Amino acid sequence: MLGNISRLAPMDDTPNSHELFLFLASTAHDMKNSISVLSGTLERLLVDASPQTESAYPQMAHMLYQTKRLNDNLMQLLALYKQVGKPEYPFDMQPIELGQLVDQVASIERVLLKSRAVELELDVDAALIWHLDEDLVVGVLSHAINNAIHYTCDKVRLAIRELDGWLELRVEDNGPGYPPALLKAGEIATRETAGGVNFLTNSAGLGLYFSSEVAKMHRHRGRHGRLALENGGKWGGGCFILRLP
Amino acid sequence: MNAAATPLLSVAPAAPDQVDWADKNYLVVDDFVGVRQLLRESLRSLGAKNIDQASSGGEAMGLLARVRYDVVLCDYNLGDGKNGQQVLEEARVRNLVNPSTVWLMVSAEKSVESVMGAAEHQPDAYLIKPITEGVLLTRLNRVWHKKQVFRLIDQAYAEKDYLRAAKLCDAQIETSRLHELDLLRMKAKLMEKSGQPAKAREVYERVLEQREYQWARAGLAKIRMANGEFEQARQSFQGVIAENRYYIDAYDQLALAYQHMGKLEESCAILERAAKLSPNSVPRQRNLGNIALKLGNVPMAEKAFRKCIEIGEYSIMKTPDAYFGLARVCGQRNDTKEALRLLLVAQREFGHEQPDIQLRAKITEGLVYHESGDYRRARKAGDDLEAMLEATAERPDVPTCLELATLLFAVGVKEAPVELLCYVIRNNHDNPLLLEDVEKIFDKARMKEEGLAMIHASKKEASNLMNQGVLLWKTGKLGEAVEWMRNARKAVPNNQRILFNAAQILVSTLQQQGYDETLSNEAHDILRHVDRLLPGQQRFAQLMEQLAQLQPVPASAEGADPRPG
C-alpha cells in the first residue's frame, strides 16, 4: 500500500533527510494541535452567532471552511507519512454500524454546513454493519463533503447502501458539477496502475490521492475498494463515490 | 431505515438504554492547555459537570489515586515523563480504575499500538485529533454498550470461571450483532485459557469465514505453535506481517517460533524489527536483550537493556531483568565494578516487591565473575548462594532453579545444586522435557550415573505421594485422602499433578458431603496456585467450573444471568 509515494517525495536515506522528516513530522503534530484549537474555537463562535447578530458571520464561515481544509490536508499528510520517510498507515478494520459512521460525519460537518446555509440530506441503512477502518472512512467522507460544500448550490447528499456485495458511499451535490480538470484529476488519481498525481499543479491532488489510497487499503477476497468522480447523481451535480468490498 | 431529508439528526437506531453522560466523572489528560480547554468544552456540551484536568502523566496518576473516574480522555504523547499508555497500565495494575471506566486514548495520528492486537492493557478506544463532539459521543456510547454486553463475561473471567464466561459469550452472540466479533475473540481466548485449543481454532475459523482479520490468523498460528508445529506457525505469522506490517504481536510471536526452532539469529532479527516499529515495550526490549546476550551480541544486548531501563523509569511494567542483563553485559566487558553497582540498584528498586531479588542478584553476580574469569570470586558467590538456600525452604521458579544449579556446578559447589535439581524433579515428575534438561545439567557436571539415580528416586517419591492419596479417595476414604494430600502438598508444594488431584479430592468431598466454605476456599487456593505455575490447562477450567457450581447462589444474583431459557 502506498508503495509509489517514494517517487512523489524526493528523499534519500542520508541521515540529514531522516532528521528533516523527523522535524517535519513533529512540526506537523504541533500544527495539528493548533489547528484543532483554531477550528474548535471558530465552531463555538459560529454556534453562538447568527448572520443577524454578527456582521462578520460570512467571513467567519469562510475561515472555518479554510481551517477545515488545512486540517484535512494535515491529516492526510500525517497518515501518508506515518512513519518518518515510510509512507504507511496502521490499517485497523472493525465491524462498524453505518448509522454510527454517518452520525460522526454529520456532526463533524454540522457547523460548517449551517454557516454556509447548505442542507445535508442523509440516505443510509443505519443498521447495516460493514467492516472498515472507521477513522479513515470518516476522514474521506468529511473531506468529500467539505469539497461538495465548495461546489454545491445549497444541498449535499450522503447516501450509503449495499450493492452487489459492495458498500457504495456517495457524496452528491446540486451544483453545476465538477469542472473537467477535476474529473480528469480524479481519473488519474484512481487509475488502477497509478501513475501518481502531480501535486504541484493540481491542488485537489492530495485529497484525491489520499481517498483512493484509503479505498485500496480496504481489501476482501481479492477485491479492493475504488474511488470515482463523476457528474450526475440525484441532482445532476458532482458525485464523489467510494466503493468498499 | 431511510433517513432522507432529515438533516443533522441522528440516524443511528435509538438505543433502548440511553446513557446519561451528564452525571459522570471525567478526567482529561493533555499537555497542551488549548486542547484541554477544547475537550472540556466538548464534554460540557454533552452535559458533563465534573471534569478534572491534568497536564502530565504524573499529575494524572495523582488524580487517579484520589478520584474514581467514569471516563478518562488521555493523550498518548504527554511530553517528558509517563506517556498515556504508561498512565493506563499503572492505573489498571494499581486498580485505580473500575472495570466500567471508559478509557479513551487520544493521539495526533493513528498509533502503531492501536493495531498491535494483544497488548495486555488496551484502552477501550483510540481517538485521533481533532476530536469533535459527535465522534466523541458516538465512541463513548459504543464503548459503554460494549461494556454492558461484556459485564457478566468479564466478571466470570475475573473469577477465572472460563467455561461459564464462554457460555455467556455464546448467549450474547445471539443478540449482539455489532459486537459479534469481539465476543468471538473473547470466546477463543477463553477456550485457550481453558486448555481447549481445538475449540479456539473453530472460533477463529468462523471469524475468518467472514473476513480476513489478522488477530484470528495470528490466533490460529499461536495454536499451531502450542502444538509444536513451529514451521507452520512461522509461515502463518509471516503471512500476518505481510498483510499488515504494523501487527506487532505477530513479530513477538514469530520471534518465539524461531526460538523454539533453535534459530536464535532469526529470532533476534525479528525482535529488532519489532522494537524499531514499537520501541516503548518493556517486555520486548527485555526479550531482545536476553536473546542478543545469548548470541554474544554484546552491543545489541546493551542497547536493548538500556532502553528497557529507560522506558521502565516511568512504567509500572519495569523489570529487574534489564538490570541483571546489563550487569552481564558489563561482566562480558570486564567491568565488574559497574555490574555490581547495577545489581545494587536492582535490589534497591525491586527489593520490596520481589522476594527472591537478592537470590537472583547473587546468581547474576556469580555469572558475572564466572564469565569475566574471576573464578575465586565466582566460587565465593556460589558459597553465598548455598548459604541462602540453606536459610529457607522457599525455592525460586524452575528456570531460575536450573540456572542456579548450572552456575553452582560450574563454580564447584556440589551438594546444593543436587538438592535443587531433586526439588525440581519432585515437583515436575511427569514433565519429560524438563527431566531431559535436568539430565543434561547432571551430565555436564560429570554426574551422569548419580544424576539418573537421583532423578529416578525423586520421581518415585512424588508419584508414591500422589498415588497413595488417589487410592484413599477411590476407596471412599475422603477425609483421609484430603488429609494425605495436605501433607503431600507440604512435602512437594509445586507439583501440578498433586495439586490438581488435591483439588479434585476436595471437589468430590464437597459434592458428596455438601458445601463447606473452608474446604471450598482451600480448593480455590490450590487452583489459583496451579494456574500461576502453568496457566491454560483444561483441568483447571473444569475444576473451577465445578467449584463455582457448588457455590450456594446468593438470592440477589438470581435472574442476573442473561442466558435465555
Order of helices and strands of chain B: EHEHEHEEHHHHHHHHHHHHHHHHHHHHHH
CATH topology term of the largest domain in chain A: Heat Shock Protein 90
Largest interface: A-B, 52 and 50 residues
Query: What radius of gyration of chain B results from the CA coordinates?
Result: 27 Å
Mean pLDDT of chain B: 90
Largest sheet of chain B: 5 strands, parallel
CATH superfamily of the largest domain in chain A: Histidine kinase-like ATPase, C-terminal domain
In terms of quaternary structure, what is this?
heterodimer
Our measurement of the CA-to-CA distance between the termini of chain A, rounded to an integer number of angstroms, reads: 16 Å
| Poorly predicted spans of chain A | 1-15, 83-87
- Cα distance spanning the termini of chain B: 31 Å
Coarse structural class of chain B:
mainly alpha
Can you write the helix and strand succession of chain A as a string?
HHHEHEEHEEHHEEEE
Approximate helicity band of chain B: 55-70%
CATH-assigned fold name of the domain at 25-131 in chain B:
Rossmann fold
Please identify, by name, the CATH architecture of the largest domain in chain A.
2-Layer Sandwich
Write the layout of secondary structure elements.
The complex is a heterodimer of chains A (245) and B (565).
Chain A: H1 5-8, H2 15-48, H3 57-80, E1 94-97, H4 98-115, E2 119-124, E3 129-132, H5 134-151, E4 155-163, E5 166-173, H6 180-189, H7 205-217, E6 219-220, E7 223-224, E8 226-232, E9 237-244
Parallel strand pairs in A: 2-4
Antiparallel strand pairs in A: 1-3, 4-5, 5-9, 6-7, 8-9
Helix pairs in contact in A: 2-3, 4-5, 5-7
Chain B: E1 25-29, H1 33-45, E2 50-54, H2 57-66, E3 71-75, H3 84-93, E4 102-107, E5 125-128, H4 133-158, H5 162-175, H6 180-193, H7 197-210, H8 214-226, H9 230-243, H10 248-260, H11 264-277, H12 282-294, H13 298-312, H14 321-332, H15 336-350, H16 357-371, H17 375-391, H18 398-411, H19 415-427, H20 432-444, H21 448-474, H22 478-491, H23 496-513, H24 517-533, H25 538-550
Parallel strand pairs in B: 1-2, 1-3, 3-4, 4-5
Helix pairs in contact in B: 2-3, 4-5, 5-6, 6-7, 7-8, 8-9, 9-10, 10-11, 11-12, 12-13, 12-14, 13-14, 14-15, 14-16, 15-16, 16-17, 16-18, 18-19, 19-20, 19-21, 20-21, 21-22, 21-23, 22-23, 23-24, 23-25, 24-25
